[in-house]
Design brief:
mainly alpha, Helix Hairpins, 2 domains
């Protein structure tokens, strides 16, 4: 039940808000002014009608007075004085009525003129108020638009949007830094592997040089040479004799360039050993 009364109250308040709407109030005021002007015009028409009626009655009694006077004159010409006196008595009564009608007519004519002036003033006032009402309605519309714009501006939340952009930018920077770190680690890992491979190659080369040095010093027996076997085909021409000097170095034969370099290093080593002894 309480909710029902609250609903009724809300409807009443909404209706009152609509009634108190300046746009509706101005329209109603303009309609009231128009209705009042129409009513006053109708009253003015009635007053003018009464004035015109009095004018017509006054004209009729004036005509009748003239007619009675003419009849009295004709009776006197015919030596009928009694009839002439009777016409004159009627004329006197008619003149009294004319006097009353004349007074009423003058009053009615004055009232009608005042009503006309009032109607003109009211028409001017209605036109003026109608123009003011239109201007006020325009101002009301402008005020509503300004309020709507202000409310819309108040509802804007640029801070949250900018904060979201900042968070997104920070995440992007973190992702880029992480990707760069991973690439750096991967590059270091590959470079380390390459360096390790180079170190091993250098170790193998140093070990081979050390073996050759030990062989020259007689500290280590020479590696057995690999016997070369020749395959002789039946019915084929004998293989030409090969010059040992021109034959290519086998796996156990050192390269002459490397051997000469080794000899130079060996001589330098012997000189250092002799100098030290």
């Amino acid at each position: 039940m309480r909710r029902f009364f609250e609903w009724i109250k809300a409807l009443f308040n909404r209706a009152m808000d609509k009634v108190e709407d300046p746009d509706i109030m101005l329209d109603q005021a303009r309609r009231d002014m128009q209705a009042g002007l129409i009513a006053n015009r109708e009253k003015a028409v009635q007053a003018i009608t009464q004035k015109n009626r009095l004018q017509q009655m006054l004209d009729d009694h004036r005509s009748k007075g003239t007619q009675l006077e003419n009849q009295a004159t004709m009776a006197l010409k015919q030596n009928n004085r009694d009839l002439a006196a009777q016409f004159m008595r009627e004329k006197i009564n008619n003149d009294a009525i004319i006097t009353q009608l004349q007074t009423s007519y003058e009053q009615a004519a004055g009232a009608v003129e005042q009503v006309k002036v009032a109607i003109k003033r009211q028409e001017e006032e209605v036109r003026k108020k109608s123009a003011e009402a239109l201007a006020m309605k325009t101002q009301w519309k402008n005020a509503q638009i300004q309020n709507s714009i202000s409310k819309a501006l108040d509802g804007l939340t640029f801070e949250n949007q900018f904060e979201s952009f900042g968070v997104a930018a920070e995440k992007i920077r973190m992702a880029q830094s992480e990707a760069a770190a991973r690439q750096e680690m991967q590059g270091e890992s590959i470079q380390g592997k390459v360096m390790a491979m180079e170190d091993k190659a250098k170790d193998y080369e140093a070990e081979a040089e050390l073996d050759r040095l030990e062989q020259r010093l007689g500290m280590k027996p020479a590696a057995p040479a690999i016997e070369q076997t020749q395959t002789v085909s039946v019915g084929a021409a004998p293989a030409p004799a090969t010059d040992p000097a021109a034959a290519p170095a086998g796996p156990g034969t050192a390269d002459p360039t490397v051997q000469s370099e080794a000899e130079k290093q060996l001589e330098e080593l012997e000189k250092r050993l002799q100098g030290g002894s």
